[in-house]
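User: Here's a chain of 411 residues. Predict its fold as tokens.
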Amino acid sequence: MSDRTKRLLVVAGFVASVFGIGAALYFVFFRAAAPPATVLPGAGEQTGTLPSSGAAGSYVITPPVLPTGTPTGGLPTAATVANGGRTVTTAVTQGPVSFTTIGTDGKTMNFYNPNDRKFYSVDKDGKLVLLSDKEFPNVENAEWNKDSNKAVLEFPDGSNVVYDFSAERQVTLPKHWEDFKFSPVADELEAKSEAVDPNNRWLVTANDDGSNVKAFQALGEESAKVTVSWSPNDQVVAFSDTAAPLSGGLDRKTILPIGLNGENYRGLTVEGLGFLSSWSPNGKQLLYSVAGGYSDNKPLLWLVDATPATMGENRHSLGLNTWADKCSYSDSTTVYCAVPRNLPNNSGLQRALYVNYPDSVYKIDTASSKVTLVAMPDKDVAMEHLRVSDDGSALYFTSRNDGTLQTIRLK
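Assistant: Prediction complete.
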């Protein structure tokens, strides 16, 4: 090999080594990092110490933003038991149902089937049992008693009956009665007696066979502002939105509790419009929702003490933007709520526009005010009429998408 060839090989080797070292430096120090793997948004908890009073806007908690569509592509399989992430929902019925309630055994669900106009009980595996062979055409509303074996049935022509499914017995009630509610402690009824003459409009109680009628609170022209709501401790039977407005804001008002004996209960101050409420099973607290400027007029859940002696105390926001009638107590300190994903501003003032928003399920520990994401249904579904089995193992709900009864396993 000549000297000239040797020199050419040395130069070529040097050039090659320079390029090799440069490439190594580029890959080690200058190449862009690979994008992170897609992660499903958060299973987790909201925690925090919430003050019991003060300006409403100072302690609103914003829940995490949840996905607006069904997760797809490379994500974990939905869990069969709720664990804070995507969770399997199971249809218990194939067709639409109405007027659901937990059955007498605490495990099954009672419901009305509008297709064949009969009432059934069904378990989570879809086993159907007729509650009665009798047909009830076009039931407009059904209000169940505490044992789920009787119901007040309202019909489009104004007819009202109490039907006892265990005894197969029917009692007719006056047509001008409406907004029925069973007592939580006895087989008594409360209703609004809506006479033609406003001077004869009253809140009334009666035995469930229509006897022993007692009028205890005049309604006059304010009937629409009174909500029948019988507390589990049998002390408050209704709420009235008839108090004069409070200073401090256009949407700040007092809700007046009504008792059976003309009691002068302390009023409940609420910060917003559209008051909806739900009693704790022991009657000591009230879960309610209102919408106000501090929440961008989205519905917001609040919790407050609500016995006659404590009415209005320890009031605080729970930071969930949903309506109280989308919640269900499992026990006196545990509530499950369907929370619509990404509600827009002013949704609390125009609810009808947002009833089909898909929901996720949250659990509230009312003793600590801790809020936990429980489940994101594996298929987008707008949930209503939530019910929890007595043993806390199953959450039932009806789907606004198709009206079917569905369930999520909680444990």
